[in-house]
Amino acid sequence: MKRILSLTTVFAICGTFLFAQNAIDLQVQLDKASGKISPHMWGIFFEDINMGADGGIYAELVKNRSFEFDHPMMGWKRLGNVPEGTFLIVNDGRRKGNPRSLKIHKAADIKIGLQNEGFRGMGVKQGNDYEFSLLYRQASPDMQVKVELLNEDDKVIGTAALLLSQGASWQTGSVTFTSLETSPKGKLNVWFEGAGDVEADMLSLFPKDTWKGRSKGLRKDMVQLLADMNPDFLRFPGGCIVEGRDLANRFQWKKTVGPIEERELIINRWNTEFNHRLTPDYFQTFGLGFYEYFLLAEDIGAEAVPILNCGMACQFNTGEVVPLDELDEYVQDALDLIEFANGDTSTPWGKLRAEMGHPEPFYLKMLGVGNENWGPQYIERLAVFQKILQEKHPEIEIIASSGTDPEGERFEFLDGKLRAMNIDIVDEHYYRPPAWFLSSADRYDDYDRNGPKIFAGEYASHTTRPNGPGRSTWEAALSEAAFLTGLERNGDVVTMASYAPLFGHVDGWQWSPDLIWVDNLNVYGTPSYHVQKLYSLHKGTDILPVKRDGQNVTGQDSLYASAVYDANTKDLIIKLVNYNDQPIDANFQLDTKRKINGDATKITLANESLDVANSLEEPLKIQPQTTQVTYKGKTIKDTFLPYSFTVIKVPVK
């Protein structure tokens, strides 16, 4: 029986055939590098948004462990028939950073306790060990703490007991036990057995299986996805939390170092930022503080890039500013941070770093002053920082804000002022629809090579409004891949680039899309994650011109291309984005006297539907596909799939 094709199908097949037969010729100037790729080109932007730190990468499972939330018992529920006066919140102003504690008075041995709900539940895994700990002081003996781990059906899946010692001073108690089941929405019961009086604080539950096995450390699976990117830098702690809704709630790094129990909690500014995503239980405990940020950067081989408040609160909120004659405290914070990161252990802040476990310096090289600040008031304050930092620490490069948008009157004002100041690095941000990213692939082709370097500090392609229920679709990621060819082609001017925000918790987000999504037990990278990871893993050292009819490949026939040479591995690396719904044939003519090893690696991200996205159910729906290919001579001939981003790595002799 003959198969009869419809006329539409015939035209579609013929169109594809004809399209694929019209091979496009591109020239790669392998022997004529146009510049050097920045050594810290591709990195990570971290902000505690979307439960990125508490309830996220910081592995603490207990919410409001120190009773310091605005409502001291938020996250806790009383268990048993509790007589009046049995549980009292005590506020002792003599305790640095953490004045509140819970006083338990039991005249008789009755069964009473507390239950903690965790951060949208507690994610626990079968067979894993968990450490419960607390600070306490007990006036009289005989009190014991019994802990129970419950699953979402209130079944006990782990238990342990801890006998409390008598003493007038605060002491630490801890016990480790094993979870008998996996539960994504577990809870913790803490029973106080016996009679007497005890004060308790810092009631905590951590998995023992943390990143690098550090006690009370970071969630291993989330850090692993960062390490897998091989990032060049880690920018922290944000983001708008640097500024705060007002200056009283700005990020103050000095309050995030030293003993964990002395770090002063503050409300997270994303707590009430969006009326449709109110998160009243979102606070910053600073268990993940500046020391831990520096340590994380070191762990994953990234340069630490801290950003400090410049004396201005978020201009979308209160817009508070510190008078110029009262800016000394803010500038001193910057000087002391450099000492904390790089200073000798004989210095006060270098000594604290050593006491925390890191006598060697962190070798800080860059420092951001302000985040998304704008206007003449920002320039005035930045000038004060610049003068003093250049005098005292000329080795530190200063990163300055170009505001919230990549164009417009605000951007033009700042760009002109920052260039006149000879600032080291200008931080540009782009939250735009895919069309903007596609049309801006040539944005830096004509930037002044003798002016400031550029930090693409926050980029993300949005298919919906930034604070709506957006997804990181393949359409968004592919448009970013096209834009990044322009960043790579101008890697001598664009010195750094990072997607933002980094993490989103499916049960606690405020802003989307995000690079990586998590729940209490799982984590996955979006298509945008895989795009930047491919750039980061195939960075190269030298920029190679890729031309089509003498022009950079910046969207002609919806194609985008860049190329680099890696002097360390002796590889030519070509990146091509095909933003067409049809495959294309392309011939890369290699202008070189060197020999090409025909055996190459081809890595492809592709999907014929621009609307698809990864998810918890299908975390690898879009992922790189790697094949080994052979090219002959000095022409790389290949076919590139519809809506695809392809990396070709060819050894060069």
TrEMBL record:
Residues 1-20 form the signal peptide. InterPro entries: Alpha-L-AF_C, ASD1_cat, CenC_carb-bd, GH, Glyco_hydro_b, Glycosyl_Hydrolase_51. The keyword Signal applies. Gene3D superfamilies: Galactose-binding domain-like, Glycosidases, Golgi alpha-mannosidase II. GO terms for molecular function: alpha-L-arabinofuranosidase activity. Its EC number is 3.2.1.55. Residues 457-644 form the Alpha-L-arabinofuranosidase C-terminal domain. Keywords: Glycoprotein, Hydrolase, Signal. The keyword rRNA-binding does not apply. PANTHER family: ALPHA-L-ARABINOFURANOSIDASE 1 (PTHR31776). This is non-reducing end alpha-L-arabinofuranosidase. The lineage of its organism: Bacteria, Pseudomonadati, Bacteroidota, Sphingobacteriia, Sphingobacteriales.
